[in-house]
Write a structure and sequence with these properties.
Number of domains: 1
Helix content: 10-25%
Number of helices: 5
Largest sheet: 5 strands, mixed
Shape: globular
Radius of gyration: 16 Å
Length: 197
């Protein structure tokens, strides 16, 4: 039997067969999005498969510790290489909110913050979701510190302007970067889902 079209998309992108050989089962709804587990492929490697036109995705040079940003406690991530996301949303209406402000708001709405792996997974299936002035943070991933604290950065995905350390060759490329936990950005929403399965 042929793989699901979203699995085939990952195969066509040349993702590791160690991941694409797994059957995620049927999607729970027509708009469900296939996600890659955070332990299956490192986020920095996964980001390199992102594409916008002829440009490839990349991770900013000062986020060398991206692998240390893991799903926050309370997120129920299915224990398998591929799983389904339901109710995926870019969170445009939350632009100009800080991550700190958004956490209780998402909880009140019955939504769960997207991890960086889930955000990249979504864009692997639907690159067009990433638009100028309408990109998103993935605050479901944070870097733990001692005594229950967290690093003050949070991962985000947007389109590079090709300036500074990004390099002109990365102009228009999907970019995995970071934002401060208490800062607001008018062009960044907050990726979230209603369920995982």
């Amino acid at each position: 039997m042929a793989p699901h079209p979203q699995v085939q998309r990952l195969i066509d992108l040349d993702l590791s067969p160690d991941v694409t050989a797994h059957d995620p089962g049927p999607p729970p709804s027509p708009d469900a999005v296939l996600a890659i587990h955070h332990e299956a492929i490192p986020a920095a490697e996964l980001a390199s498969f992102l594409r916008l036109g002829d440009t490839s995705g990349f991770v900013v040079v000062d986020l060398t510790d991206l692998a240390e940003f893991v799903p926050v406690e309370g997120l129920e991530i299915p224990d398998r290489p591929l799983y389904w996301l339901e109710g995926v949303d870019r969170g445009d209406d939350l632009q100009n909110w800080s991550p700190e402000e958004v956490v209780p708001e998402l909880e009140q709405r019955g939504r769960s913050p997207m991890t960086v792996h889930e955000g990249i997974s979504w864009l692997l299936q639907r690159p067009e979701v990433l638009e100028p002035s309408a990109c998103f943070m993935t605050i479901g991933s944070r870097k733990p510190k001692p005594r229950g604290a967290f690093d003050s950065r949070t991962p985000a995905i947007w389109i590079s302007g090709g300036t500074g350390r990004d390099g002109r060759e990365n102009r228009g490329a999907p970019k995995v970067g970071w934002c401060w936990w208490r800062n607001r950005h008018t062009w960044l929403g907050f990726g979230s889902v209603t369920g995982r399965g």
